[in-house]
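From the shared-data thread, chain only:
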Amino acid sequence: AHEVAHQWWGAAIDWESYRDQWMTEGFAQYAAALYTLLGLEDVDEFVDMLDAWRLDVLGEGHVGQGIGLRHYGFRPELLRQSDGHDSGALVVGYRLNSTETPFDHRVLVYEKGAYVLHMLRSMLLDPATGTDERFRELMRTYAADHVGDIMSTRSFEAAVTRAFGEPMDWFFDQWVYGVEVPTYRPDLKVSPVVDSRSPFVLHGRIRQDDVSDGFKMPVPIRLTFDDHPPMTYRIWVDADEVMVELALPARPTRVEFNYRHAVLAKIR
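Structure, as C-alpha cells:
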C-alpha cells in the first residue's frame, strides 16, 4: 500500500527539495496505515502501526519487540543507533543521517512524517461521529491542486490552514520544524455527583513536561459506557498543568487518554 500510494505522492506529485521529502514518504506511509484501518477494517493493526512508529520516534523501540515492532517498526538492533526525534527536524531531510545515526532519516521522514498526518487527521475528526471527511477533503484537494507539479512544506501548511480555517503555523513549528515531543502525566478519576443532572464527573489534572512554554495540542479522551454511546472529548493541553472536569451521563467502563495515539507523546 505504501508503494501504491507513491503513484500520487512521489510520481504524480514530486517534492520541491530534500527538505520536503518527508511529505512523499510520510504521506505514503500514512496512506498504508489508513488502508489497514479503512480498507481492511483492522483497527488493531492500525493501532499497532501507530504504536511502533511512536516508539521508534521516541527512541524507545529498542527496549522490547512487541507485535507492532515486529511488523512495522525498525529492528531493535538498528534503533540502538538512533537518536529518534532528537536527531533533528523533518525538514532536515537526508542530513538526519550520520555515521552515528545511519537510520534516522528513515525513522523520522517515514514514521514521524506519517505521524504528522495522523495528528492532523485526529484533530479534524468529528468527535461526535468519528468521520474524517474534513481530512479526506484536505488531502484530495491538495493532491488535485498539485498533480503534475511539486509539493512543498510551505504549500501544505497553507492547505492545512485553509482546512482548519485558522492559522496553523504553531503546529508546523512544533512538529515539522521542531524536535520537541511532550510527556503527558494524566491524573484523572471518575467520581459520582450528588444533586446534578450529570451523575458522574471525570476530573483531575494533566501535566505536560519536556516541551517549551506555549507548546499545545488537543488530546482526545475517549469514554466508553455500558448503556450510553461512547463520547470523545478534546482537552487542550497548553500549559505545564491543565485541570479537567467533564460531566458524564453515566459511569464509564473505560477511559482512554490520548485515544488511538492521537498525539505523538510519551504517556507516564
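The first helix runs from residue 2 to 5.
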